[in-house]
Structures are given as structure tokens and as C-alpha cells.
Design brief:
Layout (H helix, E strand, L loop, with lengths): L5 H13 L1 H17 L8 H18 L7
């Protein structure tokens, strides 16, 4: 997974503080992807898992202080 640079991380943290709905959107999107794994066809499971992983890493990068929505 590509890591955020220090400047990118700071920019995303600022965005999340100024627009909390952005964090909620990411959390809801991740949850939707997790729930869709149950109904996924075998060929698409890896794609969905990849999305979940990417969203999880993005949330960790943005909300490093444990304030993930």
C-alpha cells in the first residue's frame, strides 16, 4: 500500500477536521463494501477486499489519533 507523505497526511487531517462528513462518508463506504462481501461472486471478492483495505488504510492515515468516525 502506498504511504501518505507527511504533507498529504496533514492535508487529509485538516480536511477531515474541517469537514467531518468526509470521515463519515469514508466509514459508511467501507462498511458498505464489507457488507457486500457476503453477496460477492467469487471472482469479485478480491476486488472488494482490496477496496476495503484501501479505505481502511486511508482512514488510518487520516485519523491517526484514533478519532475515526
Amino acid at each position: 500500500m502506498k504511504q501518505l507523505t507527511k504533507d498529504q497526511k496533514q492535508s487529509f487531517e485538516t480536511l477531515a477536521r474541517q469537514f467531518p462528513e468526509f470521515g463519515r462518508f469514508l466509514a459508511d463506504w467501507r462498511q458498505h463494501e464489507l457488507e457486500s462481501l457476503v453477496f460477492a461472486a467469487p471472482g469479485t471478492m478480491d476486488v472488494i477486499r482490496g477496496r476495503v483495505q484501501a479505505l481502511t488504510e486511508l482512514q488510518k492515515g487520516i485519523f491517526s489519533r484514533g478519532d475515526t468516525p
